[in-house]
Amino acid sequence: MSRINLKEVIIENAKIQDIYELVEINKEEYWENKDQINLEELFKLGKWWVIPDLLKWHRQIIDNCDGKILIAKYNNEIISELDYVISPDFTSRKIKRIHIIWLIVRRDYRNIGIAKLLLENLKTNFPNIEIWVEAEDVRSLALYSSLGEKRRNITNWTLKFENFKMNKIIHKDVKRIEVINYNDLMIDVQNSKLYPVIGRYYAPIFDLEQLRSSDEVNQYIWGNTDKSIIQVYQYKSLKIVVILTQYLRIYVPDSNFSRFGFRLILSQIMKDIFESGFDEIYAQTYSEDNVQDPLREIGFSLDDNTDYVFRL
Description:
The chain is of the alpha+beta class. It is built from ten helices and 13 strands.
């Protein structure tokens, strides 16, 4: 741990020329020996920004979501990074919040108040916008528990093909009615016409922007696969929009929907995703019984790890 004068720490927005130094900070976080990083393994874990092209892309996605990469500098060296976006989320369809996507402090500068400096800078610059963050590990859980109030539990689910309880006959009234594009889906979510109930990130606009722009980095993180299809399904009056991918994303026009109809459509969706070649499907939910119960009914199992969302 380094002893420094916190008054000498400079907080500013990252510039394009900072990318290479930020890459080195991220490498240090993910691997003890940063010169022998297994990039393929990191991509599988979602640790994408360990090479400059990916971090440049990540920075552009954040900019597109009204966010920035904040950095803390001491003696002209970057010692910490905080990435944030401004977006509605799974519990707020119209009110935008600041969502912290990533926060990292170099090992030699931890536990001396650097993370708090960055968070205080955010609060000063955005006094009228709530700051929310997902705690994903023990260290971040301790930090955010000391600074904020726990607001939501994020539960993680897995469906294995052998556990899929598909109806023997898929209900004849479940229809695939149209395929839409990412731009149309983004507009509907931004205008509160669609409500995310199962997702991949707590800030769905950030998630959609990544998927919409994935062509630029496809060779790194999506294995040169085609962009996932966005399919609209319907059962009677219930319509839901689904991104057909291994990491399930589902949007509905209203959160007060029929659980029975949702389960019927969900069965068809799982069948379609499994037929595309996956043997496991993953989902994240946000404490909504009308979503979680149908997941259980078709064979999803609840993972041991639960993440928490805090308001700071």
